[in-house]
From TrEMBL:
SMART domains xrefs: AAA
Domain of life where this protein originates: Bacteria
Biological-process GO terms, alphabetical: L-amino acid transport
Provenance organism: Sulfitobacter marinus
Protein name: Amino acid/amide ABC transporter ATP-binding protein 2, HAAT family
Matches recorded under PROSITE patterns: ABC_TRANSPORTER_2
Taxonomic lineage of the native organism: Bacteria, Pseudomonadati, Pseudomonadota, Alphaproteobacteria, Rhodobacterales
C-alpha cells in the first residue's frame, strides 16, 4: 500500500507535535499519562488501541474540544507548525487548517447531504465559485453522496453519513483532518472503500491525516506510521509496514499467532501477565 512514506524521522515537515501530554477529566480522572506523537505533513498517521485506550481523548486534546467535556491538558505541550496551540480554542484550530471528524459521524440529521457539506464551507471567504468547485470535488471522491445530495442526512445509511462527515471536513479546505474511528459500525467492504478514499484524498489533495482506529488491520494497511496506545500511554510506534510485521502486534492487535487467533480480551490479560513477569 503506502510504504514509500512520510514518517516522523524522514526529512519532512512535522505539522503536529504532541509532547508528553497528560489529560485529566473532571479534575480527577487521569486518562492520558504522557502521550507523545508527531504527525508529518502529507502523511497518514494512525493512532491505534482498544476501547478506552485514549485515542479520542488525544484527538480532542489536539482540536481543543476537551473543555466541553470537563477535560483538561494538565501537562505537556501541543504544537502545530511549531506554534503552541493547547490553549487556543476549537475555532482557532479550524482557522489553522485542523478539522476533526468526530466518532459516530455527527451529521445534521434534518439537513440534506448537500446542505451538510456546505456547512463545512461556512468559514471560507474565497467565494461561491470556489465552494461550488470543491463541492464537485467531494462528489467526485464520494459518488454516492452525489446520488444522495437531496436526501435528508438522518435517513441515509451509516456509511453515507460517514462519507458526508468526511466530505464536510474537506469542504473547509483543511490541511489536516483528525479522523475518529472511521470504521465504526460499518461493514468490512464499506470500511475498505472509505479508507481507499482517505488514501486518494491524501495523495491527490495532500491532506494530512491523524486517524484513531480500533481496526488495526485496516489502519495499518493504509497508514504510513502508527502509534499504539494502551491505558493512556504509547506502548509502541513505528512505520506501518514494520508494525504489520511485528510479532507482538500480530499477536496482540491483529489476532494472529502460532496458537491461532487471540481475542483482544485474552491479549490484554496476557500482556498484563507478561508485564508482571518481566
Ligand atoms: N468526558 C469524560 N469524562 C470522564 N472520563 C472520560 C470522558 N471521556 C472519556 N473518558 C474516559 O477516558 C478513557 C479514554 O477514553 P477515549 O474515548 O479517549 O478512548 P478511545 O481509545 O477513543 O476508546 P473508544 O475507541 O472506545 O472510543 C476511558 O476510560 C473513558 O471512560
Amino acid at each position: 500500500m503506502l510504504d514509500a512514506t512520510p514518517t516522523p524521522d524522514a526529512q519532512v515537515e512535522t505539522l503536529l507535535e504532541v509532547n508528553n501530554i497528560e489529560v485529566i477529566y473532571n479534575s480527577v480522572i487521569l486518562v492520558l499519562k504522557g502521550v507523545s506523537l508527531k504527525v508529518p505533513k502529507g502523511g497518514i498517521t494512525a493512532l491505534l488501541g482498544g476501547n478506552g485506550a485514549g485515542k479520542t481523548t488525544t484527538l480532542k486534546a489536539v482540536s481543543n474540544l476537551l473543555h466541553s467535556e470537563r477535560g483538561e491538558v494538565t501537562k505537556g505541550s501541543i504544537k502545530y507548525r511549531n506554534e503552541p496551540v493547547h490553549s487556543s480554542d476549537p475555532a482557532e484550530m479550524v482557522k489553522r487548517g485542523v478539522v476533526q471528524v468526530m466518532e459516530g459521524r455527527h451529521c445534521f440529521e434534518h439537513l440534506t447531504i448537500e446542505e451538510n457539506l456546505l456547512t463545512g464551507a461556512y468559514t471560507r471567504s474565497d467565494g461561491k465559485a470556489a465552494i461550488a468547485r470543491d463541492l464537485e470535488m467531494v462528489y467526485d471522491y464520494f459518488p454516492r453522496l452525489r446520488e444522495r445530495r437531496k436526501s435528508q442526512a438522518g435517513y441515509t445509511s451509516g456509511g453515507e453519513q460517514q462519507m458526508c462527515a468526511i466530505g464536510r471536513a474537506l469542504m473547509s479546505r483543511p490541511e489536516t483532518i483528525l479522523l475518529d474511528e472511521p470504521s465504526m459500525g460499518l461493514a468490512p467492504q464499506l470500511v475498505e472503500q472509505i479508507f481507499e478514499i482517505v488514501k486518494s484524498v491524501n495523495e491527490n489533495e495532500g491532506v494530512t491525516f491523524l486517524l484513531a482506529e480500533q481496526n488495526t488491520n485496516v489502519a495499518l494497511r493504509f497508514a504510513h506510521y502508527g502509534y499504539i496506545l494502551e491505558s493512556g500511554r504509547v506502548v509502541m510506534d513505528g512505520p506501518a509496514a514494520d508494525l504489520r510485521e511485528n510479532q507482538d502486534v500480530k499477536e496482540f492487535y491483529l489476532g494472529m499467532s502460532d496458537e491461532g487467533r487471540k481475542s483482544f480480551r485474552d491479549v490484554r490479560s496476557y500482556r498484563r501477565r507478561k508485564r508482571w513477569l518481566s
